[in-house]
Amino acid sequence: MEDLKNLSAEAVMAPFVGRDTLTNRELFQQLALQLDIPEAALDARAPVGKAGKAYNLFERKVRWHQQTLKHLGVLERVERGTWRLSGDAKKELTPAPRRAVLLAFSTDLGCALWANAEDVFSGLGEQITLAFTSPPYPLAKQRAYGNTDQASYIDWLLPILEPIVAHLRPGGSVVLNLGNDIFEPGSPARSLYLERLTLALHDRLGLHLMERFVWHNPTKPPGPVQWASIRRVHHNTAYEHVLWFTNDPALVVADNRRCLREHTDKHRRFMEAGGVQQYARYAGGAYTVREGSFSAPTEGAIARNVLSIPHRDPDQQPARDYAAAHGLPAHPALMPSRLAEHFVRFLSDMGDLIVDPFGGWATTGRGAELHGRRWLVTERCREYLMAAAQRFRGAPGFHAAFAANGGANGCY
Ligand SMILES: C[S@@+](CC[C@H](N)C(=O)[O-])C[C@H]1O[C@@H](n2cnc3c(N)ncnc32)[C@H](O)[C@@H]1O
């Protein structure tokens, strides 16, 4: 029935967030309000099944979704006609049940799914140009959202990346932001997991390493505390790695003209003054410059492979405000939008599909949205998606399925 087309499992789940319990009557009322269902559709009855007994179609559809959500472990029945989020779903972070894939929010260009990445990408119906992601690092101290240890890291990550790599177009890229501050247990020696991962991506998934970018974060808090501040055997670190791989270096979809840096005033003056004034040789003749070199005006400077971007990012503010106002956990490991935007521009064109299996507050989706690329992110913790949705309000076609949908219970 046309009037009930928005009555999805996500919509049925939404009114329970922030409530202890909800009677079916309250649920029906909230859904009617939230989805703007006309009164006639609320009361419509029609014969169902062989017996031809007349049922209320709206209530029947809600109950059907309730049963699906119960089966997924999201809802549980308290007593006849009263339901609540299940034990697991009430924890601070609610992981998506395995094999459940629910839409959290979408825009005309992309969508965020509450799902385990493992359950999404093998079924994708099109080619990916860029996977840009920051997987949970193999930290010794677990994050609230969970992470795998060094020993099992590759065996955990590769099966998630494998279907993404299988859907890469020729010359498509996989870009991984990964921490460098991982140590051998109890030792100041750095882990070699990045080297092992690089080899595994090459040997097992057929990817080629294009670049080890350094993301210099000038506002990174001091650390590693144990080895720099307490034992004093290390410097404070100020960078993380961003490893860039492609399935076909000869066809790689990359263009550094899409992410040029503004010329400095000094360089502009240098170009205007005619560039190099006299022939010179450097490094024993390995490098020479002729008179007039660098005088042709160019649109900007080619970016260097050290990207200096502070991690504090005003673009995250709407999500931060929303999380604080609604008692949701702030995401503890975000990347700045500018980092995502840089790779979105560099490694894809308008309209290309960009994915992030470890979505967090959907920073990759945000970078893609801002630059006219299509996007798909998966995130397993529901609360992160509720806050992430705030970053997309105002984007053309914004639709919140279970996140931030303006429902009447005061939580969204
Ligand atoms: C380092 S954070 C990514 C943050 C993200 N780059 C951002 O700036 O918004 C990693 C995220 O992956 C999520 N995650 C972990 N395992 C997952 C899985 N199997 N499927 C989907 N998301 C997962 C975690 O909940 C966490 O939010």
From TrEMBL:
MF-aspect GO terms: DNA binding; N-methyltransferase activity; site-specific DNA-methyltransferase (cytosine-N4-specific) activity
Domain of life: Bacteria
Domain Restriction system protein Mrr-like N-terminal: 23-89
Listed GO biological process terms: DNA restriction-modification system; methylation
EC number: 2.1.1.-
Reaction(s) catalysed by this chain's protein: a 2'-deoxycytidine in DNA + S-adenosyl-L-methionine = an N(4)-methyl-2'-deoxycytidine in DNA + S-adenosyl-L-homocysteine + H(+)
Alphabetized UniProt keyword annotations: DNA-binding, Methyltransferase, Restriction system, S-adenosyl-L-methionine, Transferase
Record-annotated DNA methylase N-4/N-6 domain positions: 129-388
Family: Belongs to the N(4)/N(6)-methyltransferase family. N(4) subfamily.
Name the record gives this protein: Methyltransferase
Species of provenance: Pseudothauera nasutitermitis
